Amino acid sequence: MRSLRNAGVIGLPAHATAEDLHDVEWFSFDVFDTVVTRSVPRPGDVFLLLGEHLGERCGCSREAFADIRRAAESDLRRSLRPGEDLTLEDIHREILRRRQLPDDLLADFMAAEADAEVGCARLWEPGAALLERWRTRSRFVGFLSDMYLPAS
Q1: How far is CA 143 from CA 32, 36, 117, 127, 140, in A?
Q2: 14-37 burial, b if ≥16 CB within 10 A, otherwise e?
Q3: Taking a C-beta distance cutoff of 8 angstroms, is the pair 38, 131 a contact?
Q4: Other CB atoms within 10 Å distance of the CB of residue 65
Q5: For 119-144, how does the pLDDT look when each residue is reduced to its tens digit (9 = 90+)?
Q6: Which of 82, 84, 58 is nearest to 71 (CA)?
Q7: 18-75 confidence digits (pLDDT tens)
């Protein structure tokens, strides 16, 4: 597989505008931290908020839940083969396994994390302004994300 750099994809300086890129035919945005940001200082802080809702169900504090959540994802990522990626379902199945909780909680745990992410999501105005300038110029705009949340 070719890397993005080898495929001719360029990085943007933070101060770039649509006018600076007049000869570029299409533009893709990594959704998080480009168009959407979180209202918490670090992305993993969402797990503390999630722990407020799920920690008690796991028999632990919100801090302990956040640690369990981070460790589950980290450990699963280390076991991946090249080309594989994690899903939210994989991560929460692992949490349930570690805490010896029933699988019928899976949907609730996954929904709670999706809700926590949506609750922390905020539009990042500079990215949104750049996106709007590209849309008004009839350029192709695509969105990318390496997020483990489902596309919906």
Answers
A1: 10, 11, 18, 12, 10
A2: eeeebeebeeeeebebebbebbbb
A3: no
A4: 24
A5: 999 998 888 887 787 777 656 677 77
A6: 58
A7: 566 666 666 677 777 778 889 999 988 999 999 999 999 999 999 999 999 999 999 9
Structure tokens at 76: 């699963």
In the chain, % of residues over pLDDT 70: 75
Residue with the two structure tokens 């489902």: 150
Contact residues for 72 (Cβ-Cβ < 8 A; gap 6+): 91, 92, 94, 95, 98
Rg (CA), the chain: 19
Q: Where are the beta strands (DSSP E) in the chain?
A: 26-30, 36-38, 121-123, 140-144
C-alpha of 147 from chain center:
3
